[in-house]
Amino acid sequence: LPTRLITGGLGAMWAFVTSLVGLPPPRQSTQSGDPRGDVAAFCAEWEHQYGTVHPVFNRGSYSQVLEEAKRELKFLMVYLHCDEHQDTNRFCTEVLSNPLVVDQVAANNIIFWGCKVSRPEGYRVSQALRENTYPFLAMIVLRQNRMVVVGRREGMVQADTLVQWVQDTVTDFEAFIVAARAERDERNLDREIRSEQEAAFAETLRRDQEREQRAREQEEVDRKEEEERERLRREELDRKDMIVKMKIDLAAEIPEEPEVGMEDTVRVLIKLPGGQRLERRFLLTHSLKHIYYFVFCHPDSPDQFDIVTNYPRRTLACKPSQAQPNTPSLKEAGFGKSEMLFVADLDS
Fold this sequence. Notes:
Blueprint: H1 2-21, H2 35-50, H3 62-72, E1 76-81, H4 88-96, H5 99-107, E2 111-116, H6 120-129, E3 136-143, E4 146-154, H7 159-251, E5 265-271, E6 277-283, H8 288-296, E7 305-309, E8 338-345
Parallel strand pairs: 1-2, 5-8
Antiparallel strand pairs: 1-3, 3-4, 5-6, 7-8
């Protein structure tokens, strides 16, 4: 018990001495699993003790506020709070709560962050910034893609002096922000240009591919059409060859023309679609198919045709078929001594 009393008394005496001369208090090395909680607790305690008039506290962790200042290209002002220091209460009451200071921080769009050094998050920041006394303020800004300290203010200071220090620091180092913003804008512009170029290239490639696809599809259509035309051409050639062969074969089946004055002779006049007139004698015993063969074998005859009478108009069953291989004779068809027939082109 006496040992604890002596140790506690020495500790209290050391804290009192350090507060008088401005030395930092003993450090807390406890690791915290909630940096944001440390910051939120500081903000709540500060407002409970000193009121709500102060620069706007950023309530993120130190790493988060650094990243935010870097991302948004803003100055970051860090305030380390020490309850044990003799100037802390006066600084918070007369300086941080002063509307001039609040307005200056807001006017320069500065992110303001603070924490107690007695809390693990504040202690870690204190270890990084290595302050010598309190109150302590540091101004941090992006320089060459790193967040660096460009200004430090240690010890008690009046509100107007702090306002001037803030303005001077911003003026002196605003060029870093301008340079970083210009560099970022240039990168963004390059990125946009590349993006536009890539989009234009992709669009050109897409159009080229679509054009090539349409060309391939058109080539396929043309190929099929050409194949179809070739098929039809060959079919037509085959059909014509077959007709030529048929004319040769059927010409041999046409009977000899009867002599003039021969009994049962019929004089047949035939008018072709082109105006040509054919005339030939047949016997009444001859078949109608012989008239059909005679017309079919003529060079000016259509390939597909019917033979019709003039009056009364009727189509003669001249062409043999599977259903009617044997056509009527001229006598059975009612022919007289002379007949006028017409050829009707079925393909016209």
